[in-house]
Amino acid sequence: MEKRGWITSLFKGKTKSKPLTYAETFTGYTPQFSAFGKDVTASDLIIQSIRLKADFSSKLDPRYIKNENGTQRVMTEHTIAKVLRNPNPYMTTADFLYKACFLREINKNVFIYPDYYMTVGGERKYTAMYILQPASWKWIEYSDNTLGIRFKFEKTGGAPYEVDFDYSDLIHWRKDYEFDDYDGGANGKPSNDADLLNTLQAYRTICDSIAEAAKCACYFDGILKVNAYGQTDEKVAAIRDNFIKNLRSGDYRGVGVLDNGAEWQDIKRNLQFVDEKTMQHFTDKILMHTGVSKAMLSGDFTTAQKEAFYERCIEPAVISLGQAMTKCFFSKWQQTNGSEIILYPNKIDLMSTSEKVSLISATNAMGVWTINEVREMFGKPPVEGGDVRPRGYNNLDDNATNGGADNGGNQEN
């Protein structure tokens, strides 16, 4: 099969043949295309910060939730629920969420295509979700006033090809959705990364200067001073080469021998690099743009710092992705009647060991946790019979429904 041929076949039949024009915007210009920017990714600090966010996002648990009569019901057998658990043949849920988050941080836009087929009754049955990586795209408007988008994909060994989509058929996860009417990021405006790029350039210059200083310091170990006046360049070079040869040969056991006409002057290496406060200033300024603290990046963080990172960087993105999925998967009627996608975090993971112990101690009497749930909190494997949930204050478990007080209550007088 031709490389990326499965993508071509996937999109086949999805395009529209209706007349179209470029979509108008409130800002008064027509966007011709949007291209991914990759400048800031040259920094290791930026990349590591993005990977940290993607790692946290990969731990999320997406669910299809149905709100009915004030209660929430998890839908597990619907095709949407199955796609959330197994996005496509090439990715796990963790892979999918990691990649989507990573691309969103870099490109400010992620387009996800949920593939489906129509039943005889006109119902959509979803089969997979794919993260699209177009080289560029254009916003278009069809003759029926619906919004569309035209993707241009690069093809290895062949000409680029274009595919048109209804915008309503895509999950569009944006970041920094500010000036532009359609895209995240700074399309049509001065780049929001301008200050960051200047800071990165200054930081790179400092790092390069340190490397060059260290390199230059290794060029010279000392100076061989030839005292005889009138020595030619050839004679001076011969004296130098002979001195180095004697040192390397080992015959003099590390001691160089010179005559009265030459003198050795040692050079002491006492390099003065950039002070720590200056380096810290640039590091903090770069990380400020990412929202990731130095403690989170190094792994030396407290529970409070971890919670603050989650609330600032992860939680808003989680809510945004859930709403974007909900908008794509469900009609207005379904949304009004309680259908939604929620990505659940495991907030227990944000707690320290002592906080977990305190939580379990405070709620155990209410029958909140099974034995295996408690073991999972501490990284232990499940045990047989550990999924039984205590009944509560009387410490009766789920299997004890026919004994004790129940038996007594059912006995005839």
Please tally the helical runs, counting DSSP H or I stretches of 4 or more residues. Answer: 13
Largest sheet: 5 strands, antiparallel
Which structural class fits the helix and strand makeup? alpha+beta
- Helix % is 25-40%
Poorly predicted sequence stretches spanning 5 or more consecutive residues:
26-38, 400-413
SSE succession? HEEHEEHHEEEEEEHEHEHHHHEHHH
Distance between the termini: 79 Å
Radius of gyration: 33 Å
Strand content: 15-25%
The beta-strand count equals 13
Q: Give the integer mean of the pLDDT values.
A: 76
Overall shape: extended
Could you walk me through the main structural features you see in this protein, from its secondary elements to its overall organization?
- This protein is of the alpha+beta class and 413 residues long.
- Helix content is 39%, strand content 19%.
- The chain has 13 helices and 13 strands.
- It has helices at 5-11, 44-57, 79-85, 93-107, 194-217, 233-249, 276-290, 294-298, 303-329, 332-336, 353-363, 371-377, 405-410, and strands spanning 20-22, 34-35, 61-68, 71-75, 109-118, 124-132, 136-142, 147-153, 161-166, 171-174, 222-226, 262-266, 339-344.
- Strands 1, 2, 7, 8 and 9 form a five-stranded antiparallel beta sheet that branches. A three-stranded antiparallel beta sheet has the order 4-3-13.
- A hairpin with a 4-residue loop joins strand 7 and strand 8 (147-153).
- Helix 2 runs antiparallel to helix 4 (93-107) and helix 5 (194-217) packs antiparallel against helix 7 (276-290).
- The model is unreliable at 26-38 and 400-413 (pLDDT under 50).
